[in-house]
Write a structure and sequence with these properties.
34% of the residues lie in helices and 22% in strands. The protein has 470 residues and is α+β, with helices and mostly antiparallel strands. The strands form 3 sheets. The protein has a 6-stranded mixed sheet. A 6-stranded mixed sheet has the order 7-14-13-10-8-9, with helices on both faces. A two-stranded antiparallel ribbon has the order 2-3.
């Protein structure tokens, strides 16, 4: 039998009584200037009719029954109904990006059918100017968010005249020049890092000494400098409650130059700037709803200490750790907030570099266990949490990309919102812009699109405070 990994089996079992655990990516594209009115229809028919070999991961589904003694296993199908898995949607005439996000929110709310391979792809047209979108949704046990985005990036090309390009669910025949390849050092999302840590749990005893030393260091930093976050010390917020059935998604992008200007003026990193902006957004939103805690909100962040352009000897992605970062929501001054975030993230990177990913991720076990392992358990949303929101960063292509002659305008990862982690923030840079995607429950943040306006406001306030005037 092809058994599911223990954490994957736990996720499937938990999903049956709780929240959908799929992840997704959204590409917004513009057709080529010479495209006919039926351009998207042609793409859709080509996806259905053109012979291609499917990725094996997209040919299997989870199964547990009497024949497996209740153990979760993978079953593989011989053929697949592409008309079910690849669908078309057309937005109302004159639809804008808000209309698209409402459609994506509805699609992201629908759980995947566990009796079929657990993925769906949608071509959505009807946007102003002939633009359209490609939305790919895959269960987290099949592929994680970063790998899913890489899957999409791998079918893109720098050649604007390239035609008959494979769909993202097909097997690649061979890499070619200009195709966005996989990155061994992409920043993975928290659930993926927990899976990796649990897979190596048998080696925990081997570095028990390092783990104990790290725990003592963590406690000292929390008590003396305040740069560390103690386990289960995050304040309870609505983001730690039940997410509900309906998801809501939104996002927007900003010029990378604006982020870089603050980064260089303050002597911090781009992730420090974006984390600080997120803190400003949540501070203002919670204040407007009279729910701002006196203590700072805490984000759970995958942290890397490897530069994007550095070599990756042996393909070992061992410079990532799961860290807790205070968002400085208790500070009104954006400069003070940025300084706190920078100190905390600098410490986190030093810890990852010194101790390695496994130790630093296992340090977060107490903080993340209630969220990852207890969805659906009665009253589990009232258990103390180690963090309030998930904040991840995904590197996108550095050059303009095309899919079947259509230009990729924007790329958004759309991640997982679950009980106890009812708000997910994911950042993706693409060429000269930085996109921020928000995912939550509709009853948690009914006005989620307002976070886009608050993001612009928080970034502008940070620019005014940090950047010298011309």
């Amino acid at each position: 039998m092809d058994l599911l990994a223990p954490l994957d089996a736990a996720m499937i079992a938990a999903e049956m009584i709780s929240d959908p655990l799929h992840t997704a990516a959204l590409l917004i594209l513009s057709p080529p200037p010479e495209a006919a009115p039926g351009f998207v229809d042609e793409l859709y028919l080509d996806a259905l009719c053109r012979p291609c070999e499917l990725d094996p991961r997209f040919m299997r589904y989870p199964h547990a029954g009497l024949d497996t003694a209740g153990v979760w296993t993978w079953r593989t199908v011989d053929t697949i109904d592409l008309q079910h898995h690849v669908q078309r949607r057309t937005l109302p005439e004159g639809a804008d990006d808000d209309t698209l996000w409402r459609e994506v929110s509805e699609l992201h709310s629908e759980p995947l059918d566990r009796s079929r391979p657990m993925w769906m792809a949608y071509l959505i047209d009807g946007l102003v100017g002939g633009r359209f979108a490609l939305y790919l949704k895959v269960h987290h046990t099949v592929i994680d968010g970063v790998a899913g985005l890489q899957l999409l990036a791998a079918v893109l090309s720098t050649d604007p005249s390239s035609r008959s390009m494979r769909p993202p669910y097909a097997v690649a025949s061979a890499p070619h020049n200009g195709r966005a390849g996989h990155s061994h050092h992409s920043v993975r999302d928290p659930i993926s890092l927990v899976r990796g840590a649990s897979a190596g749990f048998g080696a925990v005893l081997g570095f028990a000494g390092r783990l104990a030393l790290a725990e003592l260091s963590e406690l000292a930093d929390y008590l003396v400098t305040g740069n560390a976050v103690a386990p289960l010390s995050a304040p309870y917020t609505r983001f730690n409650g039940r997410v509900g059935r309906d998801r809501v998604c939104t996002g927007a992008s900003w010029p990378k130059a604006r982020i870089r200007a603050v980064q260089e003026a303050a002597g911090v990193t781009g992730n420090d700037v974006l984390t600080t902006v997120t803190g400003g957004v949540l501070r203002e939103w919670l204040t407007a709803h009279a729910e701002l805690p006196r203590r700072s909100l805490v984000a759970i962040c995958p942290v890397t200490v490897r530069r994007r352009d550095s070599p990756d000897p042996g393909g070992k992605a061992n410079l990532f750790g799961l860290q807790l970062c205070p968002l400085g929501t208790d500070l009104a001054d954006p400069v003070e907030r940025l300084a706190r975030v920078h100190r905390a993230m600098s410490r986190a990177k030093s810890q990852v570099a010194a101790l390695g990913a496994d130790v630093t991720t296992l340090l977060r076990t107490l903080s993340i266990a209630p969220t990852v392992l207890l969805p659906g358990v009665p009253l589990s949303d009232r258990l103390r949490r180690g963090y309030n929101v998930s904040l991840s960063s995904v590197p996108g292509p550095k050059t303009d990309m095309y899919w079947n002659r259509a230009h990729v305008d924007e790329i958004y990862p759309i991640s997982v919102a679950i009980d106890g982690q009812a708000l997910n923030v994911t950042v993706c840079d693409y060429v000269d812009r930085v996109a921020i995607g928000y995912v939550s429950g509709r009853r948690v943040i009914p006005d989620l699109p307002s976070l886009v306006t608050l993001t612009e406001r928080a970034l502008s306030e940070l620019e005014a405070a940090v950047c010298p005037t011309g």
